[in-house]
Design goal:
Elements: E1 10-14, H1 26-31, E2 36-40, H2 53-72, H3 78-95, H4 102-109, H5 116-133, H6 140-151, H7 187-198, H8 205-219, H9 226-240, H10 251-255, H11 259-270, H12 275-309, H13 315-323, E3 329-330, H14 332-339, H15 343-355, E4 360-365, E5 368-372, H16 374-387
Antiparallel strand pairs: 1-2, 3-5, 4-5
């Protein structure tokens, strides 16, 4: 048993009667015959994670940093909340090798389908939004709703549905896989146990979120989208436990700096050691706050520059500037609704902002003219670039 006193997963033999893999070599077909070994997870609902004093201090520091960051944004946090949620979505998707520019993602959120990756990342924004909205009740049904928000536009057949078949990670069959999650019959009780663990109030929130995430990824309850859904659950838990009451802390941006360490820590968790995943999430939260502060500073500088360009503009024009951090891609209808003006007035406002270089015309999406706030887009891309810088080993 490791110092963290956490039980390792075990394995059970399961029959395999699937058809031979098409196109597989004779050796691969032979290796894919007969029973395979699937993981059996320990119940964790009542377990106590033993975290050493050094790691407790790191977790406490990370938690305080998140609480302070959340508080720093004050009452006018809505524009930054939307911005940070987008960055979390992009970072979480990038862990799955789904990348797109902030501009492409913003256009995808308006319905642009020219970039498949951007559309998938836009779906992840909806999943995280659902996670935050459902954070007060992290039930089996609500986790399925988060998953549905993620995949309903890309794979509606499995969106929101817990898997009904065996899955495995890498390899042509469960016999040659890197990891074989539990048999589908074990998914419902494992998820019920996980939900009971997440509802506890006697574990530090960040420690609880890290362990819950690792357990979720080990259960692998869905046919696809487990990584992004599991990281959305982290955001939901941090909101539910009062760590981040106003904004989404983009913890995935911290994980991005060393994805190998992230996957290694998940492996350590399955071997019965919770310390690496807890420490990685704490360090990632600290990095996320540092990067988030830089992003907020850049956005505030952009807003100041915007205001200086239209110092004598009417309040309706200035109101649009407050919309741009939330919605860096806008249409006349969006502006008309936000400012409560006619569509004609909204068009004139957008064209005025374009004339002073605040907005740039970005063609049409579904037949509707769209403008981009390019400086805000650039700040978001800079955030993503900082997140993707790998640590040296």
């Amino acid at each position: 048993m490791h110092a963290s006193a956490w039980p390792a997963i075990s394995y059970e033999s399961r029959p395999w009667d699937a058809d031979p893999i098409q196109g597989a070599s004779r050796r691969q077909r032979l290796l894919s015959r007969g029973p395979y070994e699937a993981a059996v997870l320990p119940e964790i609902a009542s377990l106590e994670p033993h975290i050493d004093l050094r790691l407790q201090a790191i977790v406490e520091t990370a938690t305080l940093e998140m609480v302070r960051f959340d508080a720093e944004l004050g009452h006018n946090s809505a524009p930054f909340a939307a911005l940070l949620l987008r960055t979390e979505s992009a970072s979480s998707s990038q862990i799955e090798n789904l990348t797109a520019s902030a501009g492409k993602i913003a256009l995808a959120q308006l319905g642009d389908t020219s970039s498949t990756n951007a559309a998938l990342i836009a779906s992840n924004v909806r999943a995280i939004q659902a996670a935050i909205e459902l954070s007060e009740d992290l039930s089996i049904a609500n986790i399925a709703r988060m998953h549905h928000a993620l995949l309903n536009t890309s794979d509606e057949n499995i969106a929101g549905e817990y898997r009904d078949r065996q899955v495995w990670i890498r390899g042509n069959s469960p016999h040659a896989a890197e990891f074989v999650p539990p048999h589908q019959d074990r998914v419902p009780p494992a998820m019920a146990d996980l939900v009971d663990f997440m509802r506890r109030d006697d574990i530090p929130a960040l420690t609880q979120a890290a362990i819950a995430h690792a357990q979720f990824e080990t259960i692998h309850p869905f046919a696809d989208g487990n990584g992004r859904t599991g990281r959305a659950i982290v955001s939901a838990l941090l909101r539910a436990k009062g760590v981040a009451e106003k904004v989404t802390i983009p913890v995935s941006s911290g994980l991005l700096t060393d994805t190998r360490a992230y996957f290694d820590a998940l492996g350590d968790y399955r071997d019965g050691n919770v310390l690496p995943i807890v420490e990685l999430f704490a360090e990632s939260a600290i990095r996320a706050v540092e990067n988030g502060r830089l992003l907020i500073e850049e956005i505030q500088a952009v807003r100041d520059d915007y205001y200086s360009r239209i110092a004598q503009a009417p309040s309706a024009v200035r109101s649009v500037l407050d919309l741009l951090p939330q919605e860096p891609a806008v249409t006349a209808d969006m502006v008309a609704e936000h400012v409560a003006v006619s569509t004609a007035t909204a068009y004139r406002t957008l064209e005025r902002l374009e004339s002073v270089g605040i907005l740039k015309a970005a063609g049409k999406v579904r037949g509707v003219r769209v403008w981009l706030a390019t400086d805000i887009i650039a700040a978001m891309d800079a955030f993503a670039e900082r997140s993707g810088r790998r640590r040296r080993h």
